[in-house]
Structures
1.
Amino acid sequence: MKTVLITGAVRNTGLAIARRFASEGWQVAITSRDSESEQARKTVFDLEKEYGIKARGYSMSYNSISDIRNTFQKVKEDFGGLDTFVANSAALGIGVDLLGTEEADFDSIVDVNLKGTFFCCQSAAELMKENGGSIVTIGSVQGTGAVAGRTVYGITKAAISQLVRSMAFELGEYGIRANNIVAGAIHSDRWDSLSPEELAARRSRYPAGRESTEEEISNAVWFLGTDLSKTITGTDLTVDSGISVCLLPYKKKEN
């Protein structure tokens, strides 16, 4: 039976990814900042009950290398190995622009999004070296273009794309693939407070007419994380409702 580990998977996109793999009979390991929280316990319980699979939750600070290494060792002990790793956790860095960034702001975002992702991928590769596997990172269109107030976040997401290319090159001999989801807007609970007018304004920018659902992102991760994509490695798969093809703000034609 195959095993997937997803970071930050007790809610939103991470949970949708966990459910996608569980629905296919995979064993699922998830991390959160606090695995003893009621939400984390409930997530693991619900996955096992609904899908009849083995699931485990782990407390892991994404900016702690010792935490990361200990967690992957526990996954090995609990599941015997790892087939797919999904680096989903991220510090959003909202409002951290170039001129207003303090050292503490910079470090807190880079430590999670880049350093944490790097060492998680390293630990995943160590578990996969004997039997191969797939590493999928969750990137962002903000790593390919600039928006206000997300400078440091965008830097880290751009770096993850390069990390994926380097992993594909270095780990190919072990049968390990690495790919990156370049995600655009994803509907999550953060959207629930938006007014109908705000929602309409956001969606008017996207050629596809709306943001991605969490399930649509999880389908892309499923594709890259499984044998459906056996010869795909070192790539960016863009799932962004078409926003990255717009040289100017997208406007729909008037009817």
Note: The chain has one domain: 3-189+213-245.
2.
Amino acid sequence: MRLTLLHIILFSSLVGFCQDNKFIATSYTPGFLLAHRADIKNLAAHNFGLEVAFEKEVSNSSWGDFYNKPSIGYGLLYYNLGKEETGHAFGILTHVKLNLVTLGSSDIKFRMGAGLAYLTKKFDVYDNRRNQAIGSHFNGSMQFGLIAHTPIRDNLDYIDYGISISHYSNAAFKVPNLGYNIPSVTIRYGFNIGTSEGPKNVDSTVLNKFDWRATLFYAKKQRNFADPTDFYNFGIQLRGLKNVNKAKAWRFGLDYTLDKTYKFSEDKTVALDSISLIDKSEVAIAAGFQWSFGKTDVIAEMGVYIFKPAVLKNQLSQRMGIAYRFTDRLSGLGTLRFHRGVADFFEMGIGYTL
């Protein structure tokens, strides 16, 4: 009897039961559209955003133990962009919040989100030529924020307050693409709607010291604002992943990309199908870090070109995006490659982990 009881206690301590809070959150983000280029000074204006989101604490997920008080959310976002030329934005946004430090009764959290937005106003040579920041109705949306998170009402609800920045662009898919940058103040209230109860998720997979992944990718971008021309890039990405734990890993490896814009920048009359292999090949080494949230990996990297056929691009490149693991081997990739804050292209790919 005692042995049976001991086994029950031991099993309970290993499995555990969790109670993660769930919330409906509303936020208000007054801010202003930042004129980060002289071409869009006329678009600078005060604006505001509203969001309604479902949020859930995930400390007891299979990956939650590797972060401090993590939570995830899915929301509907609206922005009044402040001027007739910029119009309004409607979008969907997913986000994750991670605790950085606790100060008294409040947690200082980092919030990052990404999604898709529809902008009602874009550049039009006849109807809206003063908007040279946005060239398409559909755009990617990103948010980053540093917020204080304070529980209230007996730790059931919460208030978030802090600063954030929102970004809208189409990743050079269509010109013009200077994009919108919107610094804001964030005020958020979360209404507790209950808890999720059940056994704690345990990831029993064995952690490899290194994983190796090959990804084939494709990208489309547009160049030449006066006479837009489409370019289609292809390439392969080889990455070594040095796993820190099951939710974090260092990344390093090699990129090979075919990009015809090098020759086009020198001669805009060139026939694109006549460009030689050497004149469209670029090779780079890259390194960075990834954070895993379940099957989703958030990626941040910096690269250095070791070969490119012309000076067109800065020697250093940066990359941000996500990879989603469909299986232990097969994954999808979506990352933005940019140089000094200027988007080059958005690469989409299929990867295989060896």
Note: The longest strand covers residues 180-199.
3.
Amino acid sequence: MKTIKFIILTSIVLFLFGLNAQSQEGGVRLPAHVSADGDTVPQIVLPMVYVFPTLNFSSKKQEQFYWKTVRDVKRTLPYAKAIGTTLLEINTAMEGMSEKERKAYMKSKEDDLIGKYEPELKKLTLSQGKMLIRLVDRECEKTSYELIKEYRGGFRAFFWQGFARLFGANLKTNYEKNDKDKIVERVILLVEAGQL
């Protein structure tokens, strides 16, 4: 019952905020739908609101783990999304290139990306690095190991996998949203919707 009241109250507040923001000289401009019989009905698109059952933590350690997961997702999700976007741009740009042109392009792109992101990525904690590996798999539908192997070669993939293993990470980690990453998926949805 509280959830329904919350949703109704949120809808009313968003509606009133939208009216206030769109007021022009005493009038309101809203998108509308005109039905077949000529009736005009205003349309308001509300943002997606996710409602999950309340989490009941059995221990303080479990609650700390949840909030650490929230922190890690908030810190690494923008980087994972940037990686996904960059890969789309790279794939589009490399269409029709010769092997020599592809290598030169990848080298220049790698230098640009290292210059842009390396200082920030060095500040990530180990748990945030592991989270980034999982989120890259979520965004790109390929593990970090597969991406390195595809774009930079098998030797580099092997080298970085060995380096990651030294710190307890694994570049071959898959994102399993319906299994071990259920809580992470929940946090991602709430963060993207602005609810967390």
Note: The chain has two domains: 2-42, 60-192.
